[in-house]
């Protein structure tokens, strides 16, 4: 009985540590303190290697630091854990755009859109991939569809910020 209680308490401690690391990573990433955020995401991954949120957050932070190969590996891990999360496919595509792998980026956007057909970010970055592939009409259609889907006033600004990073900081 005492042994079971000890195991249960240890599991609760791991869950609390995991929650703390995930929140800290997210908070630091939101403050653009990406290196510090990565350290917390790494700690969360050590606690539970199948933590989708930690791998996804780590990928996002690495991408923001311009470490695209490492970011791609993190998004690959996140997708291996849960391939039904459209955000992971979308931001894997963003990383691929930075790496000038536009056809793969397009395929990732298409996968994200299979999961969530009205996702503004996937539609926008699909447009970016089409643009870099020289398919300007298809890019326009994708951008147009994305802007029709935008409903929150702050959403277009966040999306524009990500687009500026893609267009002005390709690797």
Notes on the structure:
This protein has helices at residues 2-30, 34-47, 52-64, 68-81, 86-98, 102-115, 120-132, 136-149, 154-168. The chain has 171 residues and is mainly α. The protein starts with a helix and ends with a helix. The model has no long low-confidence stretch (mean pLDDT 87).
Topology:
Layout: H1 2-30, H2 34-47, H3 52-64, H4 68-81, H5 86-98, H6 102-115, H7 120-132, H8 136-149, H9 154-168
The best one-word shape is elongated
Unreliable stretches, pLDDT < 50, 5 or more residues? none
Strand tally, please? 0
Going by helix content, strand content and strand pairing, the class is mainly alpha
Largest sheet: none
Rg computed from alpha carbons, rounded to a whole number of angstroms: 18 Å
Question: Percent helix among the residues?
Answer: over 70%
**Taking all residues together, what is the mean pLDDT?**
87
Number of helices: 9
What string, H for helix and E for strand, traces the elements in order?
A: HHHHHHHHH
Through-space gap between termini: 58 Å
Strand content: under 5%
């Amino acid at each position: 009985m005492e042994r079971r209680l000890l195991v249960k308490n240890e599991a609760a401690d791991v869950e609390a540590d995991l929650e703390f690391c995930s929140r800290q990573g997210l908070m630091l990433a939101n403050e653009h303190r990406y290196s510090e955020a990565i350290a917390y995401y790494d700690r969360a991954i050590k606690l539970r290697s199948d933590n989708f949120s930690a791998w996804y957050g780590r990928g996002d932070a690495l991408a923001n630091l311009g470490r695209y190969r490492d970011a791609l590996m993190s998004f690959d891990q996140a997708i291996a854990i849960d391939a039904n999360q459209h955000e992971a496919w979308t931001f894997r595509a963003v990383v691929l755009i930075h790496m000038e792998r536009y056809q793969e980026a397009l395929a990732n956007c298409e996968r994200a859109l299979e999961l969530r057909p009205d996702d503004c970010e996937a539609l926008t970055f699909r447009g970016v991939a089409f643009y870099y592939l020289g398919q300007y009409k298809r890019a326009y259609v994708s951008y147009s569809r994305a802007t029709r889907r935008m409903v929150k006033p702050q959403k277009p600004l966040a999306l524009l910020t990500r687009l500026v990073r893609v267009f002005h900081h390709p690797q």
